[in-house]
Amino acid sequence: MMTNTQISALLDGARQKLTQRFLALEAMEQENFSRVMDAFRAERVAVRHFAPTSGYGYGDDGRDVLERVFARVFGCEDALVRPAIASGTHALALCLFGLLRPGDILVAGSGKPYDTLESVIGLTDEVGQGSLREFGVEYRQVDLNKDDVDLDALLLTLEEPRVKVVALQRSRGYDWRASLSVARLGEVAAAVHQRRPDVIVMVDNCYGEFVKTQEPTHVGCDIMVGSLIKNPGGGLAPTGGYIAGRGDLVEKCAYRLTSPGIGREVGSYMGGYDRFYQGLFLAPHVVTEALKGAMLTSQVFSALGFAVSPQPEEERNDIIQAIQFGNAEGLIAFCQGIQYASPVDSHVTPEPWAMPGYQDQVIMAAGTFVSGASIELSADAPIRAPYIGYMQGGLTFSHVRYALGHVLEHMSQKGLI
Ligand SMILES: *Cc1c(COP(=O)(O)O)cnc(C)c1O
């Protein structure tokens, strides 16, 4: 049992240990913010770009300028940034269907992709939903070797001339593995292109934006995809996703988003675009706050003797912090503590439930302003040994620190720490 004074001392001590790391993060934030700011100025963002539009959305300047700002920030030719992209999974599916044609081969170069992509690719028993497999797109997978891309094995798959896309996932997702660094993604892209200049290197960049001073598109990856209710929405974007990269490839995705012949020319948004612009403006700061929160969490739980990934001072390439609790009680108490410390629905107690599409029961804590936004402080976990909790987000460091205080108190009351 820990007293409140002991909990405060633990948090203060952990924060102290991270002082140098926080300084480095602030330097990174400044660099990312400058890039965002330069893009706003270069595109002459003005109040009129915030206006809502209706109907077809022909000549929607707010939409078009937002897309150019994103392309500049990500150092690439073009970007699709749309409220009509419903989620990260939708953006990834859009990109894959935009790029691949019947008979083509998709290679997953960083092992089994994120859970929700299994239905998109056609790895499940579901039929009739129009997966890539139903459209005649074949799939190969190259598993990670010691948390790293197995480059030799990946290059070997390129012997098949029908390989069109190599997909890589930057984030750990919900696995106990390291995330891939931007530098490594660049090396892999260079090696793939050297062997097969025609092959498209696509990156699932979810949770990765602004965690480093460069994005995959800065280092030679052809196209990347992400969600606006994660990092680049800065906590303000109410919905949406993006696809950014080479102009010819983004255009193909635009034809898939709306219609061949029409592409990106249509798409209105009655909600107005101010929150997308302001969210991007805030994103480098918000992501830095989330990273500080993740580091503090890592430091605190490793001090308490739990296995954590990443380690407090380890290189980070995404905003996820994983903690191994070793038993279901600890994991559940952790998630409940996060929920009780949320600005929305703090009075609700999350319980494990059988979520459709998952093998094990799942528990989720998300007391967020934007429904399901995981750039806001949230935690989730399947109830399965070794009982790993995944935490991410936090619009402010103060919130994460506050939440950790509650989590520790709750776990302590239950005799779990
Ligand atoms: C969140 C995430 C997705 C899917 O995004 P949704 O918005 O939940 O559909 C895909 N890949 C990775 C790595 C993610 O983190």
Which class of secondary structure composition applies to the elements?
alpha/beta
Question: What can be said about the biggest beta sheet?
Answer: 7 strands, mixed
Order of helices and strands: HHHEHEHEHEHEEEHHEEHEEEH
Broad CATH class of the largest domain: Alpha Beta
- Unreliable spans are none
Number of helices: 11
- The number of distinct structural domains comes to 2
Shape: globular
Q: In which range does the helix fraction lie? A: 25-40%
CATH topology of the largest domain, what is it called? Aspartate Aminotransferase, domain 2
* Number of separate strands: 12
Topology (SSEs and partners):
Layout: H1 4-17, H2 19-42, H3 61-73, E1 78-82, H4 88-99, E2 105-108, H5 117-121, E3 138-141, H6 151-157, E4 163-169, H7 182-195, E5 200-204, E6 223-227, E7 241-245, H8 247-257, H9 274-303, E8 307-309, E9 321-324, H10 328-340, E10 362-365, E11 378-382, E12 388-392, H11 397-413
Parallel strand pairs: 2-3, 2-4, 4-5, 5-6
Antiparallel strand pairs: 1-7, 6-7, 8-9, 9-12, 10-11, 11-12
Helix pairs in contact: 1-9, 1-11, 2-3, 2-9, 4-8, 9-11, 10-11
Could you walk me through the main structural features you see in this protein, from its secondary elements to its overall organization?
This protein is an alpha/beta fold and 417 residues long. It has two domains: 4-32 and 280-413, Aspartate Aminotransferase, domain 1 (Alpha-Beta Complex); 52-272, Aspartate Aminotransferase, domain 2, CATH 3.40.640.10. It has eleven helices and twelve strands. It has helices at residues 4-17, 19-42, 61-73, 88-99, 117-121, 151-157, 182-195, 247-257, 274-303, 328-340, 397-413, and strands at residues 78-82, 105-108, 138-141, 163-169, 200-204, 223-227, 241-245, 307-309, 321-324, 362-365, 378-382, 388-392. The protein is globular and about 65 Å long. Bound molecules: pyridoxal-5'-phosphate (PLP).
